Amino acid sequence: MTVSTHRASAKGARRREAIFTAATRLFAERGYAQTSIQDIAEEAGILKGSLYYYVSSKEELLYQLLVRNHEALYAHVAGRAPAADEPALAAVHSFVRRHVAYVLAHAELSALYAQESAALQADERWVRELRRLRRRHEDALGALLRAAIEAGEAVDDDVVMTARAILSMANATYRWQRSSPRRSPDQIAEHHARLAVHAISATGR
User: Fold this and answer.
1) Which long-range CB contacts under 8 A does 11-18 form with residues at least 24 apart?
2) What beta strand segments (E) does the chain contain?
3) DSSP-derived secondary structure for 14-60
4) CB within 8 Å of 175: residues ≥ 6 apart
5) What is the pLDDT along the chain (205 residues), one digit of tens a residue?
6) CB–CB of 200/104 below 8 Å?
7) What whole-number distance in Å separates Cα of residue 93 and Cα of residue 99?
8) Could you give phi then psi for residue 162, rounded to 5 degrees?
9) Which CATH class is domain 57-200?
10) Going by C-beta distance under 8 Å and a sequence separation of 6 or more, which residues neighbour residue 104?
11) pTM strictly above 0.90
12) Which CATH number fits domain 1-55: 1.10.10.60, 3.30.70.3270, 3.40.50.1000, 1.10.287.70?
């Protein structure tokens, strides 16, 4: 790669990030329907025509934001393999804690997924991919739950439903975290992790 090509690619990467950052903030503040491509371009400091070099439409921009969020969440939460000697329930605790911490640290993106993903229903390819990413995350937690059951540390008769219930609880924290200033993000993440573990613990039954 030549120096000029490297500079061009670096500039393109910075511009792409500026677009994603602008779209995330405006979608969260105004709502997806009330935000235009022109609004996003102005917020990112580029011409509207230049924005179309990176995405073909506002719908694709939302889709890319949601996919990026899924990938980053999965890497943050499931990218850490449990230690060989780590108790199975401790691995569940860590998963839920990290998930909630991510949701609270990226509240605007979390809100987008919860509130605006329906805007992508017209493209079945996007719907399938988002479902695949969601199932991958659910399956990762489900595997930890099954390991805890097999180790005799947990009791559960429907791992799939339990994984979804725990993740729904964790995902909802972005809605009310700002209205609970007495609780830090770390305290909220720890509380939810302990609550999830207590719900399935064999010793707590």
Assistant:
1) 15/44, 15/46, 15/50, 15/54, 16/54, 18/44, 18/45, 18/46
2) none
3) HHHHHHHHHHHHHHHHH-STT--HHHHHHHHTS-HHHHTTT-SSHHH
4) none
5) 444 444 457 787 888 999 999 999 999 888 888 999 999 999 999 999 999 999 999 999 999 999 999 999 999 998 776 676 789 999 999 999 999 999 999 888 888 877 777 778 878 899 899 999 999 999 999 999 999 999 999 999 999 999 999 999 999 898 876 666 678 889 999 999 999 999 999 885 5
6) no
7) 10
8) -65, -45
9) mainly alpha
10) 173, 174, 177, 185, 188, 189
11) no
12) 1.10.10.60
Could you give the CA distance from residue 160 to residue 170 in angstroms, rounded to a whole number?
15
Q: Counting beta carbons within 10 angstroms of the beta carbon of residue 122, is it exposed (0 to 12), middle (13 to 18) or buried (19 or more)?
A: exposed
Evaluated on CA atoms 21, 25, 31, 34, the torsion sign reads negative
